């Protein structure tokens, strides 16, 4: 495990609310860490109507390659209006080697999260026959969106059954893990405020990250060297001895040319 400097990794913001476009500049490096050097958001829900499970804001810190559709619901943190929340972020980078027992995909653009999310959304669409607002067209190119409140409620209830009550499992999807993965660990603290808006502060714990990588400790070259060394130690064999052995076999079994 290595601990590396994190000053060249950009702070990426998902487009969840329009104000994020003004607060986050994609590609700019994070130069300062700590609670007093943060991304600050003031959130206010202006929708006059909401469903029972649609109140508040869902927050998820994730790799830019990942699709947050499932992880937001299963691992996201909720921020309600009238509360302030601090989110401290620590980063770990994993680099694994594909093996027969643990295969993975090393393509940089591949994300197992996207593969699993696409699998789930297709399953949900096949059971509800309508597209939720967060579903992209590739899930069902000819599908129709959920247009009525009743369709939306039924699709939302089925989504809860699939995710939280055993109706669906990602093991049914043929999605391999990605070999290189960044894990964002979050630590949250929340407090009640007197206002009606929600306040969010996101900051890095420090400017370093943990790198965990796999490497082949005993390869084919090392195996051949050990075999050769063992033979040389036990038998006194060498390359010259091997050539002499082949010469003796050739003289014994190969026909000899007649002498004049």
UniProtKB/TrEMBL annotation:
It is found in: Membrane. One of its GO terms (molecular function) is ligand-gated sodium channel activity. It comes from the Eukaryota. The keyword Acetylation does not apply. The keyword Ion transport applies. It is a multi-pass membrane protein. Keywords: Ion channel, Ion transport, Membrane, Sodium, Sodium channel, Sodium transport, Transmembrane, Transmembrane helix, Transport. Belongs to the amiloride-sensitive sodium channel (TC 1.A.6) family. This is Uncharacterized protein.
